[in-house]
Amino acid sequence: MFERFIESINSPEITLESAVFKLLLSLVLGGIVGIERKRKGQMAGVRTFALICMGSTLAMIVSAYIPIIYNLKVGDPARVAAQVVSGVGFLGAGAILQNKGSIRGLTTAAGIWIVAALGLAIGVGLYLIAIITTAFILFTLVSLERYEHQVMSERSAKSIQIVTKSLKVNTAEMKQTFSHYNIIVHDVLLDYNYENQTAVITFDVLTKRTTNFESLFSEMKSTYPLISIQLRNEIN
């Protein structure tokens, strides 16, 4: 009985047993990834990831079943499955949130994309590869996140946007001021408004957790003719 079941789910033919097993496996593996995302407080959770994975699996099953039932000898049966890769991009875009210069949800969007690929792998019978991939996904989302936090515990990426009342700005002096607060400047973007005689300067920087921004901004305000200073965090 068990041997017949194993033979059925590994057979290239589409049977009820193999289809149900594939959908069940995609439900479990997609749900596992969704549990991890929900644990991080993401809107896309267990149900979302499970449905995406099962949908991809079903698309793959249908894609493989069409040439069998219609006895097609020409054409590309993978077209249905191929649409999953492009179609899932809309869901990924919906998971990305942008708020006042901060971006959140990129990791969840990437998770949605790879879970869709996971469903396709299950749909063609690559069960062991799908299980191993799920383990790698969890390792990336959990273990590598801890490592990332440890590496970035000293420094974090931010951007400082400064609006000045004059077109005459000395970014070198501003960089020097930042260095006094142990801030490393990676890139500088200048935007001049000749009509209003103002300049917008954006610094991409690495800062320490102990950086005293209140003191920094107070010194910048007393040194330069500033209109505003804005600190932005990039969250992936």
How is this structure best described in words?
- With 236 residues, the protein is of the alpha+beta class.
- The chain has eight helices and six strands.
- It has helices at residues 2-10, 16-39, 46-69, 79-95, 106-123, 127-151, 171-180, 213-223; strands at residues 97-99, 102-104, 155-164, 184-193, 198-208, 226-233.
- A four-stranded antiparallel beta sheet has the order 4-5-3-6, covered by helices on one side. The chain has a two-stranded antiparallel ribbon with strand order 1-2.
- A hairpin with a 4-residue loop joins strand 4 (184-193) and strand 5.
- The mean pLDDT is 81.
Secondary structure elements and their pairing?
Blueprint: H1 2-10, H2 16-39, H3 46-69, H4 79-95, E1 97-99, E2 102-104, H5 106-123, H6 127-151, E3 155-164, H7 171-180, E4 184-193, E5 198-208, H8 213-223, E6 226-233
Antiparallel strand pairs: 1-2, 3-5, 3-6, 4-5
Helix pairs in contact: 1-2, 2-3, 2-5, 2-6, 3-4, 3-5, 4-5, 5-6
What keyword list fits this structure?
alpha+beta; 19% strand; two-stranded antiparallel ribbon; 4-stranded antiparallel β-sheet; 236 residues; elongated
Span between termini: 48 Å
Task: Name the shape in a single word.
Answer: elongated
Classification by helices and strands: alpha+beta
Main sheet record: 4 strands, antiparallel
User: What is the count of helical runs?
Assistant: 8
DSSP strand tally: 6
Q: What proportion of the residues is helical, as a percent range?
A: 55-70%
Q: Which spans have pLDDT < 50 for at least 5 consecutive residues?
A: none
Give a concise summary.
With 236 residues, the chain is α+β, with helices and mostly antiparallel strands.
